[in-house]
Design brief:
Layout (H helix, E strand, L loop, with lengths): L1 H12 L4 H9 L11 H4 L4 E7 L5 E7 L2 E6 L2 E9 L5 E5 L1 H6 L1 H8 L3 E9 L2 E9 L4 E12 L15
Antiparallel strand pairs: 1-2, 1-8, 2-3, 3-4, 4-5, 5-6, 6-7, 7-8
Length: 163
């Protein structure tokens, strides 16, 4: 119940009613609303440094449209983005990767990683993300720092220091 209240509180700030949230959740969907947010749109494409507050893990993210590649220590992980609105989205692992790893497949079946921004300051978006690990909801906070507007997925991993 507490998680629902926190989730509802986030959406209430964006003008979503409790009935809309409940209806969407009952249908297995993430609530959708129609607010244009120029500050968030700046983070829908480009190259970013992602830093998680929970474990200080740093990675490079290259995002274009509904696709994202995350580079950590030279390893690339491809993800699909399902945009909820201009700011919030769900991330899912690439189907090719889920065939190799049952844990990733389970992650995707549990609605992936839901990301909501908490604040945008200049070229930095602060966020909270959550996922269900099979037993409980896990909440992670972090930040995306926009490095460039480049959306070239073929950039060599050596172009980025991720440590």
């Amino acid at each position: 119940m507490k998680l629902f209240f926190i989730t509802f509180s986030i959406f209430a700030l964006a003008g979503i009613t409790e009935a809309q949230v409940k209806d969407s959740l009952l249908r297995g969907q993430t609530p959708v609303y129609q607010n244009k947010n120029d500050a968030c749109l700046n983070f829908s494409g480009g190259t970013f440094r992602n830093v998680s507050d929970n474990n200080n893990l740093s990675s490079i993210i290259i995002r274009k449209g509904n696709n994202q590649v995350e580079i950590t220590d030279g390893e690339r992980v491809y993800k699909t983005i399902r945009w909820v609105d201009d700011c919030s989205y769900n991330l899912f692992f690439d189907k090719k990767d889920t065939r190799k790893d049952p844990l990733l497949k389970k992650f995707n079946k549990n609605r992936g990683l839901f990301v909501t921004p908490t604040q945008v300051i200049d070229n930095t978006l602060y966020y909270k993300s959550q996922y269900f690990d099979g037993k409980k909801n896990v909440i992670i906070s972090g930040k995306l720092v926009k490095l460039s507007s480049s959306t070239d997925f073929n950039q060599p991993a050596s172009n980025f220091e991720t440590k």
